[in-house]
Amino acid sequence: MRITEISVGAFLLAGIIALVVLALNVSGLNVSNAEGTYTVYARFENIGGLTARSKVTMSGVQIGRVTNIELDEQMLMARVEMQIFNSVDYLTKDTSAMILTAGLLGEKYIGVSVGAEDEVLKEGDYISDTQSALVLEDLVGKFLLNKASE
Asked: Are the C-beta atoms of residues 112 and 26 closer than 8 Å to each other?
């Protein structure tokens, strides 16, 4: 009887630990960061809801994470800091980055497209070719303004 109670308790404890690890991974918080990263930056005119811990993807595959977003006081633009996995060492200097939306109103993430130059991005470099987020309210406002002026 006692062995059955101990085994049920151990099984419940293992289940709770598994749920906690799953919740941390789904939320973007990792218990361990086994893979090394390097930092690159990009400036956007409008980040439109992009947050820290958002994904950085290339062709739909995650290659990094957004770690920090702040206002660049000299350029008056949002400065986005990204941690890119060390295994992705082929991002060229003419790489472009754009803020995309998963679905119509889903989460925001950064999509990266590699350019054709030979020189690659290193720690602390900036991605200069960026495209800001598409803000649905701005599109509706422009559409209504154009219809009203006709």
From this structure: no
Dihedral sign (CA 143, 112, 121, 115): negative
CA–CA gap between residue 65 and residue 50 (Å, rounded):
11
CB 71 within 8 A of CB 99: no
> Among residues 90, 28, 21, which one has the least CA distance to residue 55?
28
Positive or negative: CA dihedral 128, 95, 33, 44: positive
CA distances from 86 to 63, 73, 77, 105, 109 (A): 9, 30, 27, 31, 19
| Residues facing residue 81 across a β-bridge | 41, 68
Residues 6+ apart with CB under 8 A from 126: 40, 41, 42, 43
Give the number of other CB atoms < 10 A from CB of residue 83: 19
pLDDT in tens, 77-108: 999 999 999 998 899 999 999 999 887 777 88
